[in-house]
Specification:
The structure is a single chain. The chain is mainly α and about 240 residues long. The chain is about 80% helix and about 0% strand. The protein is built from 10 helices and no strands. α3 runs antiparallel to α4, α3 runs parallel beside α8 and α9 packs antiparallel against α10. The longest helix has about 45 residues. The protein starts with a helix and ends in a 5-residue tail after the last helix. The relative contact order is 0.18. The N terminus is likely disordered.
């Protein structure tokens, strides 16, 4: 019952999602998709490209970016999981080869947690009798949870879908309108979405929402402004 209550705690759930990588991949995915595509769309539109070209560029950016993000996230998470698994295997080997040294280190870790030396010695002896429990304690001493190392496939899928979702937001108006109307709608949708992303980031980190939300809006504004400037400078219509 106590363990269930602990796992249900909001802070505990946030910590689990951060370590697994899914929350990070989701937030980064939707943010990158939004910034990338709104910048690209506004830049191409500023060069006086036709609505069809804007749609094609936006769709190509969505597909390419989503696939790139998914592959990158999978490789990153796979490397992280393999590294953590290697650390745990090394600790398991040390437990087998030199159990007394491992027990002494475990005792020292418990003492550093604020437990008396006598209690720590007794606890380390009890834990050393079960290698699985001892290994789990070692892992937590390094800030790891051996049961929650993360899923590369989950992170990759989350990144792919959220990037695509973020990239789709500023592209939608170009399927129903063109010119200044579509441009203004893209800007408004991107601005609203950026504020929402900032608010979600604030909630995940336990902070107040205004600054993260407006910071996200500022980032998108700078990126979009840079690409609009490039589009205006080159000013190459594509019919």
């Amino acid at each position: 019952m106590a363990e269930t209550a602990l796992n249900a705690h909001p802070s505990r759930q946030r910590a689990v999602e951060v370590q697994r990588g899914t929350a990070r991949a989701a937030v980064l995915g939707v943010s990158d998709g939004l910034v990338t595509n709104v910048s690209l769309i506004l830049g191409v539109a500023a060069a006086e490209a036709s609505p069809a070209v804007v749609r094609l560029a936006g769709l190509a950016s969505l597909v390419a970016g989503a696939c790139s993000m998914a592959v990158g996230e999978y490789v990153s998470m796979r490397a992280q999981v393999e590294l953590l698994e290697g650390l745990l295997m090394e600790e398991a080997r040390r437990l087998r080869e030199n159990p007394e040294l491992a027990r002494a280190e475990l005792e020292q870790f418990i003492v550093h947690a604020g437990v008396s030396r006598r209690t720590a010695r007794q606890a380390s002896r009890e834990l050393a009798r079960d290698p699985a429990h001892a290994l789990a304690t070692y892992a937590r001493s390094m800030g790891l949870n051996p049961d929650e190392l993360g899923s590369p496939w989950a992170a990759a899928s989350s990144s792919l879908l959220t990037f695509a979702g973020g990239a789709l937001v500023p592209l939608v108006p170009w399927f129903f309108a063109s010119g200044r109307t579509a441009l203004l709608a893209s800007l408004l949708l991107a601005g609203a979405a950026s504020l929402g992303i900032g608010a979600i980031l604030a909630r995940l980190s336990g902070r107040r929402w205004p600054w993260p939300a407006f910071r996200q809006l500022l980032v998108i504004g700078i990126a979009a402004g840079a690409t609009v400037l490039v589009g205006r400078l080159f000013h190459v219509p594509v019919g």
